[in-house]
Design goal:
The protein is mostly helical and 411 residues long. The chain has 18 helices and no strands. The chain is globular, with a radius of gyration of 20 Å.
Amino acid sequence: MTLARALGGGRGIAAVDDARRVLLARALRGFADGSAAILLPVHLSALGFEAFAVGAITAATLLGSSLLTLGLGLVAHRMSRRRGLVVASLLMAGTGAGFALVEGFWPLLLVALFGTLNPAGGDAGPFLPFEHTVLAQTTNGGARTAMFARYSFLGTMAAALGALSTGAVDWLAPLFGQGAVVQALFLLYGALGLTNLLLYRDLSPATELPAGEPPPAPLGPSRRRVYGLAALFSLDAFGGGFVVQSLLALWLFERFGMEVATAGMVFFATQTCGALSLFVAVPIARRIGLVNTMVFTHLPSNLFLIAAAFAPGAWSAVALLMLRSLLSQMDVPARSAYVMAIVEPAERPAAASVTNVPRGLASSVSPLIAGWMLTLSAFGWPLVVAGALKLIYDLALLRGFARVRPPEEGG
């Protein structure tokens, strides 16, 4: 499906250009986050921090990103979409510079808390409420799942390339020193934030709400649905926080003695599998519905995650993680399209924020627990806990929202 067709054909050149800007910016940010997820534990370990401190700083990045997303999302109904995305881009540039130049634990904790770095590898962060709103506003109802699949695919593939790029640490360290290479890659993260700014400053007026009095509150008639989804998504994210990429990388380092370049290749492979599966979600959702797609692709992926913890060797663990990645991302475009479809247009920024911020807040706690678990044992207890919590989420989502159907499904 071409981009113009996904946009419904009748929305004009401006809408196509706006969507392309969002998709390109998402790809650039995905590359930056994919690289940073691997670099973060390497950088912090080189500075002398133990696993608990790495978990604490990782938790701070997730907490800070969540608070920024919530703050921007709750004022977005009164704020220019373009201005919100420009502010987020400036914060990203500052985050890259901070991680490159700061060395102390407490200053790094502050950079993590007030920055945009996203070691979870997903599309969370202060960009999310604005980007989701722009894409939903420029896309016809039935095509939203395909548009969000494209959005997630570009972010995931770019993140995979970012993870692969961390091989530069091993290749260039003998020439320039590991610290200098890592510093340069964090500065690249900041430079990509400035590139996002250049893309967003030229968004068209079509991305904004129609002229007139803004709605009195960020959420209106859909408030109860949004809060219910937020609670369930929090449970899912709390489980996912046990296996963010930074901690999965740390587990592979400690359990199997895996090298950085090898871990980068592993994450490139798993993210590629996940990215390719995103488009499979589109025909599945068309056939069985968005909620069923979220649940019945997610259940087996969590069983593979639990099994990986018991793998006897590195490559059997990698194989199970790859099987998990073939299924674990199919719910992403379905979830985004579902939230945008069951709320009013003016509620979309707040709905995107409220359903994703609790995810970030919940997942900001679990890396700390996972880091503590890894100080006790190299066994994959974080993988077991993550898989079990996600299984509970899947069943609860099916029970609570199977009958809440978007308009395109006859709801």
